[in-house]
Amino acid sequence: MNDQPKPILEMLGITKRFPGVLANDHVDLELYPGEVLALLGENGAGKSTLMNILVGLYRPDEGEIRMRGQRVEIHSPRDAAALGIGMVHQNFMLVKTMTVAENIILGLSDLPFVPDIREVSQRIRELSQRYHLQVDPDAYIWQLSVGEQQRVEILKLVYRGAEVLILDEPTAVLTPQEAQELEGVLRIMTAEGKSAIFITHKMEEVMAFSDWVRVLQQGRLTAVRKTAETSPQELARLMVGREVLFRLDRTECVLGEKILELHNISATDDRGLPALREVTFDIHGGEILGIAGVAGNGQSQLAEVVTGLRHSTQGRILIRGKDMIHASPLAMIRAGVSHIPADRIGMGAVGNMAVADNLAMKGYRGSPISERGVLRPRSILEFAQRMIDAFRIATPTPQTRIKFLSGGNIQKAILAREIDACDGLMVAVYPARGLDVGATEAVRKMLLSQREQGLAVLLISEDLEELLTIADRVAVLFSGRVMGIVPSTQTTVEMLGLMMAGVPLADLPVSTPTTANA
Amino acid sequence: MRIVFEKRQSVSRQAILLVPVLSFLVSLVLGAILLLMSGVNPLAAYAAMARGTFGSVYSLSETLVKAIPLMLTGLGVSIAFRMQFWNIGAEGQLVLGAVAAAWAALFLHGVIPDALLLPVAILAGMLAGACWAGVPAGLKAYLGVDETLTSLMLNYVAILLASHLYYGPWRDPQGYGFPGTAQFPAAAWLPRLWGRAHWGVAFAVIAAALLWFILNRTRWGFELKIIGENKTAAHYLGINIARNVLLALLLSGALSGLAGACEVTGISRRLQQGLSVGYGYTAIIVAWMAQLNPVAVLFVAVLMGALLVGGDQVQMMMGLPASMGLVLQGMILFPMLAGSLFTEYRLRLIRREPVAKTPTATPVPTSEVQS
């Protein structure tokens, strides 16, 4: 018994109730030094709650936490940090108007009154090189892409020398290459005797990253497995409770009229630097055009230009042949463009308003939700109930504030609203990011049914499998430029990967240059 | 056993009603301690306060006199605050509204029919208040200028402009040197209900009902709510933020301007020194205490009005120093403001079980699944 290593962290019988929900029901957890533990479960299974308890954002109603065998009370993230526990949240906790270096030292307790930012920047540069987390310490957070922001979050923990690193769906915003790099980071850290817990619902990641896996279902711990002794199939079954099919039927679709046309569109990012360079493509009705690329290569700017949220600096944009250059977001909405934004909580929904209100936020301009400028509360409720049923949005009532729903259900509500309002083009940005297997399947099915109804879909995704499964054609963005557009049936992950790394389609060392441009 | 302070998932109706009442009781206890220390019987003092504010028809009218401008400016401020537009210029908007109403009453008399004089004076006041709020609103909406500074600075401009007018060009030649204009013609007097309480209270009630309807039942109100909650989402949903903020602020200023117009046509019947006793600033407290709810603003304004009158009463009746009235007002306000926290948060007692149960993981999941 004595040669057994002692766990660095134990959570015993953790129970957490929210009004109306039992988020954690006597959950146990053990973590040993040098070990990576995967916490697997569907949306709303209680993974994030459990980890938020560990970092002191929530207090458990019952149960106790032991660190190195000692019982500890964690009242705040500062307490957690002092114990060497740090977390990278799904929604980043960064101050947008401050620089990377400032964010990293923010909240450090042993900070001098006037911190030497240059010294901090130097140390950040060293750490970012050591862990391959490329970030400019002097850049402002608002200037960074989501992927870069995550690197800052990880650097923040590394900088503070956390012993237990908690990562909430870390790979959701990363490319396959970046995910591999993250695996490298974890390997270096575990070799140093540190340990990590990562929250995920992707079986491949559990298999690749972890030593142990704990499965949560509806707040309860339902299984503990050694990763080496389980399989993705078993994990999927344990997580969902039924066999999951990963196949989707993509029927042949007749191409309709040309709905969206971009001609030589260029645009700048928030810093005024070029973000899109002479982007040209079109999408027909009944077609899904996928956009692949490493985060920060112009995808968000592309979505913003097409939805009227950002003005292009040159080029032409047409919807159903009509010139829409510098059209306002409202003009784009009126032209039938729907938008599922990447930032669900920040942009796609109004957290403090009811689910019903959020569902009505596209339809409120006209009948039946409003008549001559006056809202009709009964119509809002009826519409909401219809959407809640049709899209299986799990909400206590339509009047519940939407921020109390799980991420997957917020996304379903946004999808419901946008799909209902869509009349031509659907711009979907990372629509399945962070969703569990069931919800992902639902989202993809919805996009396919949009296509079958003759609508055009612009699907921006970092998931190459997803693009190859549901897109008709895939365009690859690198540094704001389209590297090539290929039919999804005539390409491979490797080909896309090369283009994502900046090799134009014309230069690909492929024997059959299928430059089919539909 | 442990006490947990946690955010309420939904604001309960009971809490909305109960919290102010309990806070008020705490206020009274704190005030009583203070009064005891000054050697005054607190019960006698509170009785004097109650008599002086709600005890008679006359005292009720005096409470209303103070409450009416607080209602109107409180409504104006709350609509601006709902847009997260920190309009602290209600005072200036009120004063400028009073100036414009005075101008109409003094200089349009005989020019337009008498029957139109009062409506025109009131509309002029609203228009002036709207324009005065429109300046910081326009600067903010189109140029991104911080509204707290601009709206505050414009208060001084309006107050000094008013005093320039009643000390200088508009001063009553027969006024024995008293700083103020001549009395308005009777056609420009806002009718009184009883005592000095005037019809402004009807304007305030109508304005509150209208605001409630706009915010809860109209498309425009829906857009205002979204803007107030999340500007990024508003932009994404195709809502014109600049135009809506500007429109809401014009409405906000018009309400404060209306307060000023009512003050000069209903109370003083002339533009004179001592026009506003900081109603525009007290309105900020009123708006917050009412949680920006237009209907609640009416009641909170009456309470604040009573506090203003009651403070004066205690001071006069009990022979306390003048500052004591102010201290007492503050003492009463403080728990009420602090108490509003409990409408959003609640305390919960948790009993810790003697031994934490640690059931081992049940290995096989059940077949029932909720997606």
Describe this structure in words.
With 518 residues, chain A is α/β, with parallel strands linked by helices. Chain A has 3 domains: 9-240, Rossmann fold, CATH 3.40.50; 268-336 and 423-518, Rossmann fold, CATH 3.40.50; 344-421, no CATH class. Chain A is built from 17 helices and 22 strands. In chain A, the strands form 5 sheets. A 6-stranded mixed β-sheet of chain A has the order 6-7-8-3-9-10, sandwiched between helices. A 6-stranded mixed β-sheet of chain A has the order 16-19-20-13-21-22, with helices on both faces. In chain A, strands 2-1-4-5 form a 4-stranded antiparallel β-sheet, covered by helices on one side. Chain B has helices at residues 13-37, 42-54, 57-82, 90-107, 114-143, 147-167, 200-217, 219-229, 231-236, 241-268, 279-289, 294-317, 322-339, 341-344; strands at 2-7, 192-194, 197-198, 345-350. With 371 residues, chain B is mainly alpha-helical. Chain B has a two-stranded antiparallel sheet. In chain B, 68% of the residues lie in helices and 5% in strands. Chain B has a domain at 70-293. The interface between A and B is large, with 66 and 42 residues.
Features:
heterodimer, A: 518 residues, alpha/beta, Rossmann fold, 3 domains, six-stranded mixed β-sheet, 17 helices, 32% helix, globular, disordered C terminus, B: 371 residues, mainly alpha, two-stranded antiparallel sheet
List the helices and strands and how they pair.
The complex is a heterodimer of chains A (518) and B (371).
Chain A: E1 9-18, E2 21-31, E3 36-40, H1 47-54, E4 62-67, E5 70-72, H2 77-82, E6 85-88, H3 100-105, H4 117-130, H5 146-159, E7 164-168, H6 176-191, E8 195-200, H7 203-209, E9 212-217, E10 220-226, H8 232-240, E11 258-268, E12 274-284, E13 287-292, H9 299-306, E14 314-319, E15 322-323, H10 329-334, E16 337-340, H11 344-348, H12 355-359, E17 370-371, E18 374-375, H13 377-390, H14 407-421, E19 425-429, H15 437-452, E20 456-460, H16 464-470, E21 473-478, E22 481-487, H17 493-500
Parallel strand pairs in A: 3-8, 3-9, 6-7, 7-8, 13-20, 13-21, 16-19, 19-20
Antiparallel strand pairs in A: 1-2, 1-4, 4-5, 9-10, 11-12, 11-14, 14-15, 17-18, 21-22
Helix pairs in contact in A: 7-8, 14-15
Chain B: E1 2-7, H1 13-37, H2 42-54, H3 57-82, H4 90-107, H5 114-143, H6 147-167, E2 192-194, E3 197-198, H7 200-217, H8 219-229, H9 231-236, H10 241-268, H11 279-289, H12 294-317, H13 322-339, H14 341-344, E4 345-350
Antiparallel strand pairs in B: 1-4, 2-3
Helix pairs in contact in B: 1-2, 1-13, 2-3, 2-12, 3-7, 3-10, 3-11, 3-12, 4-5, 4-6, 4-10, 4-11, 5-6, 5-10, 7-8, 7-12, 8-10, 11-12, 12-13
